[in-house]
Write a structure and sequence with these properties.
InterPro entries: ATPase_P-typ_cyto_dom_N, ATPase_P-typ_P_site, ATPase_P-typ_TM_dom_sf, ATPase_P-typ_transduc_dom_A_sf, ATPase_P-type_domA, HAD-like_sf, HAD_sf, P-type_TPase_V. The N terminus is likely disordered. A hairpin with a 2-residue loop joins strand 26 and strand 27. The chain has five domains: 53 residues; 120 residues, Distorted Sandwich (Calcium-transporting ATPase, cytoplasmic transduction domain A), CATH 2.70.150; 239 residues, no CATH class; 193 residues, Rossmann fold (3-Layer(aba) Sandwich); 202 residues, Calcium-transporting ATPase, cytoplasmic domain N. The longest helix is centred in the last third of the chain and has 58 residues. The protein starts with 19 loop residues before the first helix and ends with a helix. The strands form six sheets. Strands 12-32-31-30-13-25-29-28-26-27 form a ten-stranded mixed sheet, sandwiched between helices. The chain has a nine-stranded antiparallel sheet with strand order 15-14-24-23-22-21-20-19-18, sandwiched between helices. Strands 4-3-5-11-6-9 form a six-stranded antiparallel sheet, with no helix packed on it. By secondary structure, it is an alpha+beta fold. Helix 27 packs antiparallel against helix 30. It is built from 32 helices and 32 strands.
Length: 1031
């Protein structure tokens, strides 16, 4: 029976769910029940009869229920599973990517057997079998782990046929009404129908902060759709855990199944792991083109060799076999490994630094990062906020700051004690850490199981005199004297609204309810009556936000709870015409690791951006303090009035003349000074973003992306939009965050890093359990090392195949071939270990300004390839010609292996491989020097020794074993000396030409960079002129 699944993320960092080996078999192991992705239902206000809008969904639900009642559950799952299968059957199934490689290996082994290369074919077959066995073992282990984490079923009470029956969750279908209980892990998506529940959504968001869900009839208004995108406050996702339930005495908590299987939120997350977003990375795209370049070079030699073998009278079948053998040389089996070996070692090193990866291709992309975006709270600053104090307002004047909250009275104190969405879970008050700190300061007690209210607050100390000495628009003495203060209604915080509110009532005080609202100072100011606002509201706010404090504001009003309003309508009435109460000031300290980590990134010329939901001046202050914005930069802050954006200089000395910014071109008026940055508010972003969507990119929006360094009061969607637009501007973008509000941006970025100690956000391809931003430059260093290693390995393996190809082509001219053990020596003793060990080269400790190229098809790479191919082929040709001119030279034996030509080219070719290994092991400024990689350097020296000994000390048994010419003439050592002289010249020329290519590349890059900057400046001037002409 197919089962629903839930995900427990405690083991998530250990899995490499994005890897091909796991994805290839994973869909055969894990199966979900499929539900309709377009399920739309309505619930009557008077009862909970389900009316499914979609006709096909209605028929499907009826059929399933009928079969369930008749005990034919499997047929139901077949019906449900059909749409699942359609969704699963994707053309980009990762398992198909390995098919061509597998067929090529089989083709190679069969071909080598026909050429009597039994030993070599057997060695390759053994290695392939062992590798496949290890892969199978790792895949099976990971699948078992994933199965344990993902598979989940439970028994639930379902209302069917007018009665309750206990059924397995695998038999649920959309439209079923289920009873929810404490500690239940939900098997699919639901809509809450009655009561209130508190959920732990850490599986989905990475945050263990409890989330409260409300019944559909309270939060949906006239639109009773169960679509979670429409009514999020009543939507419940599968995989989350019910930690608390609240309902009237005698009632049960009921919810309706809306989605099952792949269509659930959890199912979509699992799909995103099985089929991760394809990364259109230039390096991966050009690797195929690089292979085509190798083939084009080899095609010339291939044609010559076929022509020469036919001319020499070689049999047709042997010509065909040898020609096919050339393909296995030109397309080296180790080439695909070049893409993954560097990534693999980088992932291991990241893991050792507590940075876990579930999307290996993203590692190399990290090496190209140009812009890094950071959340503020919990990322750049400490996780927790400390309550510094409150600044009350009396009669339009701010009073003195109060730090001893426990001795306060009045409506501002009631705000601290009652305006929150905390819950009492597992014998402690739980919720948003900020609200926890505020509530703890009041020393009040919370009872969220009250029979008459949603929750009740009991004040620890009686308040008597203080509020009598101060004048408040609405006195609160009576409420404060009550034994209990009931929370009649709660409206949770919403990012889009930037506020939350409650309606409170003193126990026994009918008709004297109060509405209290808490939120951002900008929103509370807009919602408050002007007569209650102090004249210095903005200046006092600026005073604290410029120092980096997080400031909340509060207001209140009289409100009588009506009976004929929906919850949304009540909220609209509550959150308006407020009397301003004062500021709540929170201190958020910068993490000590933040400034040095950001300094490393800035020195590498990586642009840093803060994206926060906090106040813009707080963001600017924190950005300046941690070094994200340099002290000498002019800072312009956006201000919106009646839909019009203006820019205010918030960094200049008040006594000096402020700079002015043109609102269209975003340039300083009367100056070409570009040393300024923009601090953008969410409302300004919305206006400019909407304009961009309507009319397309414009100079203002482009300049905003170029100069924006602080983006404040940004909603989660706006954070994601910013990242996507930076990527659309052809920038490689990283994102570092720690909360659910960062999930969209983490997914959208090329590299997303989630900071989490426990359950990492499933949205991010990287998770750092060391919760500071030092992980960013560590990841970038490893990304650059991975990309640089991949480049070097591609070049080295390409040269290895072409050097060997040159050797074989020259031998084919004499109808000779390399022997079994000669291939084994070169491929398995030399090349294979060197390739693996080259991947272990660690990144440089210093992050350079220069970024590695991602273009394999570039003048530098292809130029280096052609130069070295020509050079190595030239020296081999010299040896091929001159060995035949030696007096002692005799033609080869009948088998075409044991000959002076084969021996000379084999011995010399080995040195050419080592020369290429030495040249392509140099990777500064991204990789450490070769000698720091002890395994590579040691194996390289070992090969130098063995290859030199094989040349200068001819040993007859050893030569015989390697199928070399062992009956050597007296003049052989003179020939060896000539080979050594040629080798010395070859080394000098190869290294010299490579360094010349690097020098030319550097000069060309510097020139192109200057030209690019000049063109960008010229384009900016033309765009500004065009914008001014069209105003």
């Amino acid at each position: 029976m197919i089962e629903h699944q839930a995900i427990n993320h405690s083991h998530q960092p250990k899995l490499k769910l994005g890897s091909e080996s796991i994805s290839q078999s994973i869909n055969q192991i894990i199966t979900f029940i499929a539900g309709s992705s377009n399920t739309k239902s309505m619930v009557s206000k008077n009862n909970y009869n389900v009316h499914v809008k979609d006709e096909s969904m209605r028929v499907e639900a009826r059929c399933c229920r009928l079969r369930l009642r008749q005990g034919e559950g499997q047929d139901c799952h077949t019906l449900q599973g059909a749409s699942c299968g359609d969704r699963c059957e994707r053309s980009d199934h990762p398992g198909r990517k390995d098919t061509a490689n597998d067929h090529f290996q089989i083709y190679s082994i069969i071909l080598w057997c026909t050429e009597v290369y039994y030993v070599y074919a057997g060695a390759i077959l053994f290695i392939a079998t062992v590798s496949a066995g290890i892969t199978l073992h790792e895949t099976r282990k990971n699948l078992k782990q994933l199965n344990e984490i993902a598979r989940y079923t439970c028994n639930v009470n379902v209302l069917r046929g007018g009665s309750t029956e206990l059924v397995n969750s695998s038999r649920l279908v959309p439209g079923d009404i289920v009873e929810l209980q404490n500690s239940l892990i939900l098997p699919c998506d639901f809509t809450l129908l009655n009561g209130t529940i508190v959920l732990n959504e850490s599986m989905l968001t990475g945050e263990s902060i409890p989330v409260t869900k409300y019944p559909l009839t309270e939060c949906a208004g006239d639109n009773l759709s169960v679509n979670g995108e429409i009514n999020k406050r009543c939507a419940i996702s599968g995989g989350t855990k019910v930690v608390k339930t609240q309902c009237l005495p005698g009632e049960r908590i009921l919810a309706m199944v809306t989605r099952t299987g792949w269509t659930t939120t959890k199912g979509e997350l699992v799909l995103s792991m099985l089929y991760p977003k394809e990364t259109n990375f230039k390096f991966f795209q050009q690797s195929i083109k690089f292979l085509l370049v190798l083939c084009s070079i080899a095609l010339v030699g291939f044609s010559i060799s076929v022509w020469r073998m036919i001319k020499n009278g070689t049999e047709v079948n042997e010509v065909i076999v040898r020609s096919l053998d050339l393909i296995t040389i030109v397309v080296p089996p180790a080439l695909p490994m070049a893409q993954s070996v560097g990534q693999g070692f980088s992932i291991l090193r990241l893991k050792a630094q507590s940075i876990f990866c579930i999307s290996p291709p993203r590692v190399s992309m990290g090496g190209k990062i140009e812009v890094f975006c950071f959340d503020k709270t919990g990322t750049l600053t400490e996780d927790g906020l400390d309550l510094m104090g409150v600044l009350p307002s009396y009669s339009q004047n701010f009073g003195e700051m109060v730090k001893d909250i426990g001795r306060m009275t009045g409506p501002l104190f009631l705000t601290l004690a009652t305006c929150h969405t905390l819950a009492y879970i597992e014998d402690k008050v739980s919720g948003d850490p900020l609200e926890e700190k505020i509530f703890e300061s009041t020393k009040a007690h919370l009872d969220d199981n009250h029979p008459h209210y949603k929750a009740a607050i009991r004040l620890d100390v009686k308040r008597e005199t203080f509020s009598e000495t101060k004048h408040f628009p609405i006195p609160t003495n009576e409420i404060e004297q009550c034994l209990e203060i009931g929370l009649v209604e709660k409206f949770e915080f919403q990012s889009a609204l930037q506020r939350m509110s409650v309606i409170i009532r003193g126990h026994g005080l009918q008709g004297k309810d109060l509405a209290i609202v808490k939120g951002s100072p900008e929103k509370i100011k807009a919602l408050s009556v002007a007569s209650s606002l102090p004249s210095d509201y903005d200046s006092v706010l600026d005073q604290y936000t410029k120092k980096g404090y997080r400031v909340l504001a509060a207001g209140y009003k009289d409100y009588q709870m009506p009976n004929d309003r929906t919850k949304d309508e009540i909220r609209d009435e509550v959150e308006c015409d407020l009397h301003f109460l004062g500021f709540i000031i929170m201190e958020n300290k910068i993490k000590p690791q933040t400034p040095p980590a950001l300094q490393v990134l800035k020195k590498a010329n990586i642009r840093l951006i803060m994206v926060t939901g906090d106040n813009v001046l707080t963001g600017v202050s924190v950005a300046s303090e941690c070094g994200l914005i340099l002290d000498d930069r002019i800072i312009f802050m956006s201000e919106v009035s009646n839909g019009v954006i203006s820019w205010r200089d918030c960094s200049s000395n008040p006594s000096a003349m402020p700079y002015k910014l043109d609102p269209v071109s975003l340039t300083i008026e009367g100056s070409d000074n570009e040393d300024f940055v923009l601090a953008v508010t969410g409302d300004a972003w919305k206006i400019l973003y909407d304009d961009k969507v309507k009319i397309g990119p414009n100079i203002t929006f482009t300049r905003l992306l170029q100069k924006g360094h602080v983006f404040a009061r940004m909603t989660p969607d706006q954070k994601q939009n910013l990242v996507e637009d930076l990527i659309a501007a052809n920038l490689y973008v990283g994102m570092c965050g720690d909360g659910a509000n960062d999930c969209g941006a983490l997914k959208a970025a090329h590299v997303g890093i989630s900071l989490s100690l426990a359950e990492a956000s499933i949205a991010a391809p990287f998770t750092s359990t060391v919760t500071d931003v030092s992980c960013t430059h560590k990841l970038i260093r490893e990304g650059r090392a991975s990309l640089a290693v991949s480049f070097k390995l591609f070049q080295f393996i390409g040269m290895y195949s072409l050097i060997q190809f040159t050797t074989v082509i020259l031998l084919y001219l004499k109808s000779d071939v390399l022997g079994n053990y000669q291939y084994l020596y070169q491929d398995l003793w030399m090349i294979f270990p060197l390739v693996i060990f080259m991947g272990r080269t660690e990144p440089c400790s210093k992050l350079s300004v220069k970024r590695p190229s991602s273009r394999l098809i570039s003048p530098a790479v292809i130029g280096s390839l052609f130069v070295h191919v020509a050079l190595t082929a030239g020296f081999q040709s010299i040896i091929f010609v001159f060995v035949q001119k030696e007096k002692w030279y005799t033609p080869s034996s009948d088998d075409g292996i044991i000959s002076y030509v084969v021996t000379s080219l084999f011995l010399y070719g080995n040195f050419q491989y080592l020369i290429m290994c030495f040249i392509y092991s140099f990777g500064k400024p991204f990789l450490k020097l070769m000698y720091t990689n002890k395994l590579l350097f040691g194996w390289f020296l070992l090969n130098v020794v063995t290859t030199t000994l094989l040349l200068v000390i001819p040993n007859k048994p050893l030569y015989k074993f390697f199928q070399l010419e062992h009956d050597l003439p007296a003049g052989w050592m003179n020939w060896v000396y000539k080979l050594l002289i040629l080798l010395a010249i070859n080394i000098v020329l190869s290294i010299g030409l490579e360094y010349l290519i690097i020098f030319i590349k550097q000069q060309t890059s510097a020139k192109n960079k200057k030209n690019k900057q000049a063109r960008a400046r010229e384009h900016l001037i033309k765009s500004i002129q065009f914008a001014e002409d069209n105003i």
